[in-house]
């Protein structure tokens, strides 16, 4: 597969097409799976990505970069390599990259999730010869509840907190997870407010046509304000900062896949933990491999050795490739006590 895909210090490289996929460093031509900054690196000269990610990528990338966007399923030929994007189910515009060259097909999943996500297109299986899969939550302990079960739990927590006369503060990653959380909130319970970093992503989602409940940017509220009964969606780094004082009596919660790990909520010093991830869980990862049915699986990012070993024991040709320490986010990883990497990105400066 070296002619189609190989690992290099700058990341996955397609030699035949002379481009990198989600490069670790700035390169001349980057094919990007989605707008999180550990996948869409700042400083590249040319970017190719799925059309649905346009507003998010333009928000986060350098102004002088050259962009090209493709609708899902439409292909472009780069030096003889057919390249197309297919939904990954991770966040708005997230895509799997399909490469075809001389009769061989490789699929790079980027970050992906099976199942429902009201803010993006669902993951689609693609038959291929080589599948590159993440394994952020690649252990049997990680199993996600259905979307409705998760949203019902959060809304019930909000109702209970409102009835106590307190304000809810729900922490989630600024771009992607926060908008998914907002989409599931019931505005009949009370008003919804957003942290500045969350507001930027929410605006980009709305520009792309994603329907979300009404929200108010906290920074637009002047003078003293009664937040009792409200829901504030914020980034984890806001926890315990002076920014929080304006909300009065509060209850706090973290929404993260790491909340499935015993003790994660205690380490984050929050009142409640909700197991919410935009990454594939253990049973869905195995299902994805089965549906794509590749001859070879490359495992990256996360519990790589455990997943590769399991696949090998079950008859798959699987191996670990260098992930350069990527993770669901530095915020979420710190919730588990495990440093899996960073997706903090441009919004990080707005989180205090």
From TrEMBL:
- Where does the record place the region Disordered? 318-352
Highest taxon of source:
Bacteria
Q: Where is the composition biased (Basic and acidic residues)?
A: 318-328
Molecular function per GO: exonuclease activity
Write the record's keywords in alphabetical order, separated by commas.
Answer: Exonuclease, Hydrolase, Nuclease
NCBIfam families, sorted: Xnuc_lig_assoc
Q: Do you know which PANTHER family this protein is assigned to?
A: BLL1145 PROTEIN, CLEAVAGE AND POLYADENYLATION SPECIFICITY FACTOR FAMILY MEMBER
- Report the protein name in the record: Exonuclease
Species annotation: Novipirellula rosea
């Amino acid at each position: 597969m070296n002619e189609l895909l190989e690992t290099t210090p700058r990341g996955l490289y397609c030699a035949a097409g002379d481009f990198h996929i989600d490069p670790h460093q700035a390169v001349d031509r980057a094919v990007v799976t989605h707008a999180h900054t550990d996948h869409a690196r700042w400083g590249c000269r040319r970017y190719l990505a799925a059309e649905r990610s346009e507003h998010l990528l333009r928000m986060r990338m350098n102004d002088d970069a050259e962009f090209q966007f493709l609708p899902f399923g439409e292909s472009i030929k780069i030096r003889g390599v057919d390249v197309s994007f297919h939904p990954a189910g991770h966040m708005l515009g997230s895509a799997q990259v399909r490469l075809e060259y001389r009769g061989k097909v490789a699929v790079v999943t980027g970050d992906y999730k099976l199942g429902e996500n009201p803010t993006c297109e669902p993951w689609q299986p693609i038959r291929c010869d080589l599948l590159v899969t993440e394994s952020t939550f690649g252990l049997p302990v990680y199993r996600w509840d259905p979307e409705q079960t998760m949203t019902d739990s959060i809304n019930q927590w909000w109702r209970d907190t409102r009835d106590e006369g307190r304000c809810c503060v729900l922490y989630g990653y600024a771009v992607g997870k926060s908008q998914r959380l907002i989409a599931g909130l019931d505005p009949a319970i009370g008003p919804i407010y957003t942290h500045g970093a969350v507001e930027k992503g929410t605006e980009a989602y709305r520009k792309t046509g994603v329907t979300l409940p009404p929200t108010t940017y906290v920074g637009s509220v002047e003078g003293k304000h009664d937040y009792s009964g409200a829901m504030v969606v914020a980034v984890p780094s806001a926890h315990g900062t002076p920014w929080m004082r304006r909300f009065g009596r509060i209850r706090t919660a973290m929404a993260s896949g790491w909340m499935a790990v015993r003790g994660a909520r205690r380490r984050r010093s929050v009142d409640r933990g909700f197991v919410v991830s935009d990454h594939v869980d253990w049973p869905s990862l195995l299902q994805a491999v089965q549906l794509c049915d590749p001859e070879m699986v490359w495992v990256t990012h996360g519990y790589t050795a455990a997943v590769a070993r399991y696949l090998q024991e079950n008859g798959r040709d699987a191996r670990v490739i260098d992930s350069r320490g990527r993770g669901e986010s530095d915020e979420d990883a710190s919730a588990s006590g495990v440093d899996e990497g960073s997706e903090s990105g441009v919004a990080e400066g707005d989180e205090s």
